[in-house]
Amino acid sequence: MPKAPILLDVRVKQQTQRATIANLRQYGRTSIAALQRVTARSGARAQAAAFRFAPVDTEYMRTHIHLVLSAQRMAYQIGYDESDFTGTGRPPYYIFQELGFRHWLSGAFIQNAHLRPAFEQEHPRYLREVAQALRTSAQRMAV
Predict the structure, then answer these.
(1) What pTM, to 2 d.p., does this model score?
(2) Which of 7, 29, 76, 105 is surrounded by the fewest CB atoms within 10 Å?
(3) Residues 88-106: pLDDT tens digits?
């Protein structure tokens, strides 16, 4: 899968992903595969939540939320590919929806954040599932 340029994304931050993966090797390869599955499922849930939270006008913005997994499949990004908008002559209005803007006529500040709330909703579940996958792997190793 080619890496799409993402203009705005939400990430689960890890200081040293390679070190994390190296430390996981103590649990065996099955734990790494389990964590990759947990990460992929979490990314799909975050993408679906962002879809539900996104403002609806023409459906175009909602249907162009991308999920990109890291090369090791231990992290993900949800966001937009700028070319989906600029290639069609559409302005990248997802930036203004997520970060907010001041309406030109009324002067009201309008914000329809949907990426960050989707991430914040999913993050605790993701951490619980990671912990459970590690516990399960440790129990298998102990047997």
Answers:
(1) 0.75
(2) 105
(3) 777 788 888 888 888 888 8
